[in-house]
TrEMBL record:
Species of origin: Halospina denitrificans
Protein name, per record: N-(5'-phosphoribosyl)anthranilate isomerase
Domain N-(5'phosphoribosyl) anthranilate isomerase (PRAI) span(s) in chain numbering: 6-201
CDD domains in the record: PRAI
Reactions it catalyzes: N-(5-phospho-beta-D-ribosyl)anthranilate = 1-(2-carboxyphenylamino)-1-deoxy-D-ribulose 5-phosphate
PANTHER family found in the cross-reference section: N-(5'-PHOSPHORIBOSYL)ANTHRANILATE ISOMERASE
Length: 210
């Protein structure tokens, strides 16, 4: 059966990873961007991965990293997927021989289509809100009308989603997956299990009523 996948991003604590898995999340995101309030170290990430049950995808998120940093994290951690959330080139993203997705900040109608062209090796394109001062985790939505009606590869919708608007997002955009961080938190990096459950319930209900 077709369904909308869910990624809970910015996990910083093992108990939140477990809560996400128990609520039915398909993926968790670990932020390896030191400037983020949700950044985790390799030992913290390792502790999170250790408690995670099987069949939950672990996504390692980086922003304009040095190649050495990417290699170090791939060696140390069981990362299923890399998420490049900065201004990385396609050549750089492809150079690790590891599956990856590319995040883009959507400021007009052409951005996702251009990224689909430019980032050929990407497993998917994550569409996030544009903010000139922040690469992600803005807590803000953007104009979903700027997204292509028929994306050429899996589209992951992010940016300001929460239990109150994700149902609408699923019905209108019909993305491959939705990604949330601030909308399921009590404070940056501190997830709330009830909010995660509400979010995932809304995704399921709204997909099923299609
Ligand atoms: O979450 C962060 O702090 C962050 C910082 C820099 C780059 C990306 C970051 N998060 C990326 C994500 O995948 C978030 O889930 C996505 O930006 C949506 O965040 P939110 O609007 O808070 O749901």
């Amino acid at each position: 059966m077709d369904r909308t996948r869910v990624k809970i991003c910015g996990i910083t604590r093992p108990e939140d990873a477990l809560a996400a898995a128990q609520a039915g999340a398909d993926a968790i995101g670990l932020v390896f961007y030191p400037a983020s309030a949700r950044a985790v170290t390799i030992p913290q990430a390792s502790a999170i991965c250790h408690v995670l049950p099987p069949f939950v995808t672990v996504v390692g998120l980086m922003v304009n990293p040095e190649a050495e940093m990417v290699r170090k994290h791939l060696e140390a951690l069981p990362l299923d997927l890399l998420q490049f959330h900065g201004d990385e080139s396609a050549g750089f993203c492809n150079s690790f021989g590891h599956p990856w997705i590319k995040a883009v900040r959507v400021r007009d109608a052409g951005v996702v289509a251009q990224a689909e062209e430019a980032y050929h090796g990407a497993s998917g394109i994550l569409a996030d809100a544009y903010d000139p001062d922040q690469y992600g985790g803005t807590g803000r939505t953007f104009n979903w009308g700027w997204l292509p009606e028929r994306p050429s590869r899996p589209l992951i919708l992010a940016g300001g989603l929460n239990a109150g608007n994700v149902g609408d997002a699923v019905r209108r955009v019909r993305p491959w997956a939705v990604d949330v961080s601030g909308g399921v938190e009590d404070a940056p990096g501190i997830k709330n299990a009830a909010l995660i459950q509400n979010f995932i319930r809304e995704v399921i209900q709204n997909h099923e009523t299609d």
